[in-house]
Amino acid sequence: MRVLLTGGAGFIGTHTAVALAEHGHEPVVLDDLSNASEEAVRRAAAIAGLEIPLVVGDAGDAAVVGRAIADHGIEAVIHFAGLKAVGESVAQPLAYYRVNIGSAVATLEAMAAHGVDRFVFSSSATVYEQPGAGLREDAPVGIDLGNPYGRTKAMIEAIVADAAAADPALRAAVLRYFNPIGAHPSGEIGEDPKGVPNNLVPFLAQVAAGERASLRIFGDDYPTPDGTGVRDYIHVLDLAEGHVAALEALEPGVLVANLGTGRGGSVLEVLRAFEAAVGHDLPHEVVPRRPGDAAISTADPSRAHELLAWRATRTLDEAIADTWRWQQRNPRGFRG
Ligand code: NAD
Ligand code: UDP
Known about the structure:
The protein is of the alpha/beta class. It has eleven helices and 14 strands. The chain is globular and about 55 Å long. Bound molecules: nicotinamide-adenine-dinucleotide and uridine-5'-diphosphate.
């Protein structure tokens, strides 16, 4: 299938482009490069061993998306484009509503105008109103979420459901990612955060590289086995393969599935895995909890096993080793 990846120059999009190519599909990227670089797409193409066309443009403009669909004979769209920093979304809510919701609506409109009916959407575990262990897709989802970023994801899920109710031909998948980490094992593509990373694994990578002094562990008094926060860390290659499986399983209507491992990892376990990859201890200190953080968030991934015949196979240690390889080879990310 010829697949348009909006936001496809980013972390998850580049890995998904490679996975699509490995499964015989033809990825085309549409990205405004607001949080990515052309170099990322070039490297993904080199790994995949084929040309990956890059259209530089705004997924919030239906005419731009429509032109990309027509020019490249697109049959399916995976919609990654959006802004994703939780803290920034609190400070700049209108930008988050404009970019995230605007790009989803414009992309769906362009698809309808060109008769494209396969759609996969990047949602997030943040849509669950009550975080916890073994979250199932039927757990309550709503907009009472504490930050605008999560609200945009829950709203777009509702928009996709409404669009499918109005158009019986639409075949959509809403994929709720847990915590994507890792990098391609080649060390050629990976996560390239701008500024100080908010997320644990990219921050730790910079501590390991000596760019940041010390990891701050946000609380060790949670009701978890070692007192630190627990998340469901999933290797970005497993996540990428989940998109291929979802694309190939699409049926009329909306399929909603968690993409997670079902296993929890604590902050201390991630720290120890990183220390093992690097070969020495890493500086860290315990500081108070970060406001808004849940004690635990892990998936029940059984629906994805059943409906997509997909499951995550890579370990936390592999993901951390791949992150460290990417970090060492690209200390300045894609900036060379
Ligand atoms: P990313 O920032 O690396 O990728 C997003 C891409 O979208 C970037 O390349 C950016 O340049 C592009 N973009 C932004 N606005 C655009 C616009 N208007 N038009 C065209 N392109 C635009 O982020 P990622 O980690 O690869 O995330 C991809 C998607 O997955 C996002 O929707 C994100 O919210 C979602 N998600 C990410 C995580 C995570 O932890 N990384 C977790 C859950 C969900
Ligand atoms: N965390 C931490 N120090 C950091 C960043 C994160 O202790 O510098 C913890 C955070 O409290 C959470 C876990 O690591 O328990 C994962 O945080 P991240 O921001 O990566 O993901 P999210 O909270 O969005 O699931």
